[in-house]
Amino acid sequence: MKIKVCGLKYPDNIYAVTDLAPDYAGFIYYGHSPRFVNDIAVDTLNKIPTSIVKTAVFVDETEGEINRLINELGFGAIQLHGSETPDFANAFIGRVQVIKAFGINEDFDFEQLNDYVGKVDYFLFDTKTDAHGGSGKTFNWNILNNYKLSVPFFLSGGLSLDNLEQITKITHPQFYGVDLNSKFEIAPGLKDIEKLKTAFGLIKQYTTHEIRS
């Protein structure tokens, strides 16, 4: 079970989070988000251990701007959280890991994901809202049973200490990792380290149990 902590913003807090050794650290490049990192320093990102995949999150950004940030800041993954097409996502395959996010509700049609197979590395399933993530709301995880493709996925949307243990009930073979964000914050972009420590312990306990099983 991979752990992604998303919406990091403040240098000292970033280092405190990365000391916990998540698998992915997410930085949001979307101006309308309260977690927008704006002009985060190269030196700040360079201090993150190479074992952690630095992930830049975009919403309908241009290919040129995404390439610029990959080049200048050394991102190892990008997360596309808007209406990006399969061909747009495919332009980055082989260079960085590509995560395509989708908002999920009761009416979500998983057939629309078919064209992304082979053009993304992972999907991320978030709660469908009028905004682009960070809502703190969960969706009905039983909907995941309708997902039949082979592309692994991250689960996002309102994960918290109150519901994290329930991921043990998700047995989908492509369930790859969890995305922790707004429910583990003191303020937007400022993560609660103690809550994250507890979450990491629960997730690793679950993963160890799965391996032993």
User: CATH class, please?
Assistant: Alpha Beta
The structural domain count equals 1
Global outline: globular
Task: Give a count of the beta strands, DSSP E runs of length 2 or more.
Answer: 10
Can you give the mean pLDDT? Answer: 92
Q: Which architecture per CATH?
A: Alpha-Beta Barrel
CATH homologous superfamily?
Aldolase class I
Structural category: alpha/beta
Task: Provide a count of the helices.
Answer: 5
Which blocks of ≥5 consecutive residues have pLDDT under 50?
A: none
Largest sheet, strands/sense/barrel: 8 strands, parallel, barrel
Strand content: 15-25%
Give the % helix.
Answer: 10-25%
Rg of Cα set: 16 Å
Strand order of the largest sheet: 1-2-3-4-5-6-7-8
- CA-CA gap between termini: 14 Å
CATH topology category name = TIM Barrel
Helix and strand run: EHEHEHEHEEEEEEH
